[in-house]
Design brief:
Blueprint lengths: L11 E2 L5 E2 L8 E2 H18 L3 H4 L5 H12 L7 E3 L3 H14 L6 E5 L4 H14 L4 E5 L12 E7 L11 H10 L3 E5 L11 H4 L3 E5 L12 E5 L1 H4 L38 H14 L4 H22 L4 E2 L11 E5 L3 H10 L2 E2 L1 E3 L3 E5 L7 H17 L5 H4 L6
Parallel strand pairs: 2-13, 5-6, 5-7, 7-8, 8-9
Antiparallel strand pairs: 1-3, 4-10, 9-10, 11-12, 12-15, 14-15
The chain binds pyridoxal-5'-phosphate (PLP).
Length: 398
């Protein structure tokens, strides 16, 4: 198991002169992914053609790689499968969960949740009918808001803006005590910190692989269903690859065994090949050691920034135990400050209305880089280097 994070940096292809603090949004390229994807393209797709589905094991990849992600999120073997995008998996898991509480009509979430998760819930409720509703409360008020009408509590464990972390075990207990099911979004947890889905007793979970897990832009999402629910859950999106026998081409849907039924359509093999190369690294990562290192890096960054400027206000919880693996600061000109920072080779991102967001990813980020990033950030603020029209020009993706 990897506990020495100085060695893992060489496993990633990072551009010279860049300090990358955005692995929480798009993980960097694992060096081995280049050859792995090239092999899939040239030898498998190119030479095997359609035979690749059997000969190269393409059809098994969503389950096989799901099992490797399972270890990182404390899930039972056979309870995680890959496919589709996270938004789709949120919809699917939520629809499945709602059906398991037919006498209740409310989805409870928090106001800090990622918009796509909330939009998916709104759209699903609209489809199900006027008596279904999404209710959102402040993150700290979720436990108290789980009333007898709540069917599903849908939460993202780590807030995408501030890094604030929910107490998964406590909220799962609270949901169950009130007769509700719980769906956890692990977009900012998988590969960021230890997660204990099975231990917490979670019902459903979803997450993405292109953030901390380095599967590349557009890499597939994953879905978890607790083993106790797997054989009675209806997958809501009942696609042919979730059918018991896809190649029987039966006109009637019959759900596949266990987690297989959560599959929908043809898996993205090139992205799965990239993910496989990344998981070769993740298989050896000790998540407790990763967490300790992530806290060291984040604490070092906050201390260095606060020592160097008084223009930024910490938006993340000060207690590292209450944060994921990212740190955000408020600044009224946050967008321009981030552009100036990127111009100097320090890549983080901006989240409206005023947040500078930085991700800490121990596999490739060093303490020296974190110190240097803080130094450059403080310099930009002191010199007002951000204050130019070019840095205020908003791009499509922030
Ligand atoms: C990144 C993220 C998404 C993105 O969903 P996609 O379908 O992959 O675009 C959704 N939810 C959360 C909480 C996220 O952090």
């Amino acid at each position: 198991m990897t506990t020495d994070f100085t060695a893992t940096r060489a496993l990633f292809d990072l551009p010279e002169g860049v300090i990358y603090l955005d692995g929480n949004s798009l993980g960097p390229l694992p060096v081995a992914a280049k050859a792995r994807v090239a092999r899939t393209v040239e030898q498998e797709w190119g030479q095997m053609l359609i035979r690749g589905w059997n000969a190269a094991g393409w059809m098994e990849m969503p389950r096989a790689l799901g099992d490797r992600i399972a270890r990182l999120i404390g899930a039972e073997p056979g309870s995680v499968v890959l496919g589709d995008t996270l938004s789709i998996k949120v919809y699917q898991a939520l629809a499945s969960a709602l059906e398991m509480r037919p006498d209740r009509r409310v989805v409870l979430s928090d106001t800090g949740n990622f918009p796509s998760d909330l939009y998916m819930a709104q759209g699903l409720c609209a489809t199900l009918g006027a008596d279904y509703a999404l209710r959102t409360v402040a993150p700290e008020e979720v436990a108290a808001a789980i009333g007898p009408d709540v069917a599903v509590v849908m939460l993202t464990e780590v807030d995408y803006r501030t890094g604030r972390k929910h107490d998964m075990a406590a909220l799962t207990r609270a949901a169950h005590a009130a007769g509700a099911l719980i769906l956890w979004d692990l977009a900012h947890s998988a590969g960021a910190l230890p997660v204990e889905l099975a231990k917490a007793g979670a019902d459903f979970a979803v997450g993405c692989t292109y953030k901390y897990l380095n599967s590349g832009p557009g890499g597939p999402a994953f879905v978890y269903v607790a083993p106790r629910h797997q054989d009675r859950v209806r997958p809501a999106l009942s696609g042919w690859l979730g059918h018991e026998a896809p190649f029987a081409f039966d006109p009637d849907y019959r759900p596949g065994a266990g987690i297989e039924r959560m599959r929908v359509g043809t898996p993205p093999i090139l992205q799965l090949a990239a993910l496989e190369a990344s998981l070769d690294i993740w298989d050896r990562v000790d998540m407790a050691a990763l967490r300790a290192r992530s806290i060291d890096l984040s604490e070092c960054f906050i201390a260095a920034v606060e020592a160097g400027t008084d223009e930024l206000r910490l938006a993340s919880p000060r207690d590292p135990a209450a944060r994921g693996s990212q740190v955000s600061f408020h600044h009224p000109e946050g967008y321009a400050v981030m552009q100036a920072l990127i111009h100097r080779g320090v890549i983080g991102d901006f989240r409206a209305p005023d947040l500078l967001r930085f991700g800490f990813t121990p596999l490739f980020t060093t303490v020296e880089e974190v110190r240097r990033a803080a130094e450059i950030l403080c310099e930009i603020l002191t010199t007002e280097a951000w204050n130019t029209p070019a840095f205020k020009q908003r791009a499509k993706v922030t």
